Amino acid sequence: MIDVHPFHFLLPPQAAVLFRFALRLAADETRAEDLVQETFLKAWANRDSFTPGTELRGWLFTILRNTFYSSLRKHRREVEDVDGRLAALLFEEAAQEHSVDLNKLISAMARLPEIHRRPVVLMGAYGFSQQEAADACNCAVGTIKSRVSRGRSELGRAFGRDPVEPHGTITHPGPLADRHVGACMSETP
Predict the structure, then answer these.
(1) End-to-end CA distance of the chain
(2) Using one digit for the tens of pLDDT, what is the confidence trace for 98-153?
(3) Residue 113, domain member (yes or no)
(4) Which of 118, 158, 166, 185 has the largest CB neighbor count within 10 A?
(5) What residues make up the domain containing 18?
């Protein structure tokens, strides 16, 4: 025969009293019913810690009150965000992806010829104007524009992007374009 725990008989008569107490705390019938259920679940889970002969009702009231205050603390920290706008504000991309991208950029920059790397760094990283970069490289502004453009194109290819013309049209290099680019690259401005 299965042994029945005394709580099977002791808990149900306490439901009405606990409900009234929970209703005073929560001021909502549905929430009060939930509190009573949570109290019974916690009492059942911790039935071995209850000392027979002590005040069961006081023990249950303490569990119910503590459960109510715990839920209040929890709900104070929660913010209603039905459409997800607030959660989107908390989004932050993983830092390791930026580190990997930075390492790729450093590697691609190291592969650029010095003649293209220096103007790209001066203008892109240090914020030099075209004139300032031209003065630093001892060349004309038009030459700096050309070197920066070629350097950026090389970086774009390193990252798998098609080179883009100044007017925004994508070029599709063929044999003629390769000869033209090769001839321009061999020129020393």
Answers:
(1) 101
(2) 788 888 889 999 999 999 999 999 998 899 999 999 999 999 999 999 999 999 99
(3) yes
(4) 118
(5) 7-76
Give all strands (DSSP E) within the chain, no chain letters. none
Dihedral of alpha carbons 27, 30, 33, 35, sign: negative
33: left (phi over 0), alpha (psi -120 to 50) or beta: alpha
Token reading at 42:
């916690």
Which of 76, 97, 126 is a domain's end point?
76
Those residues of the chain that have pLDDT short of 50 are 168-189
Residue type, 60: L
Domain count, the chain: 2
Same domain for 72 and 112, yes or no, is no
Length of the chain, in residues: 189
What are the C-alpha distances in Å from 50 to residues 30, 34, 37, 63, 110?
28, 22, 18, 12, 72
pTM: 0.42
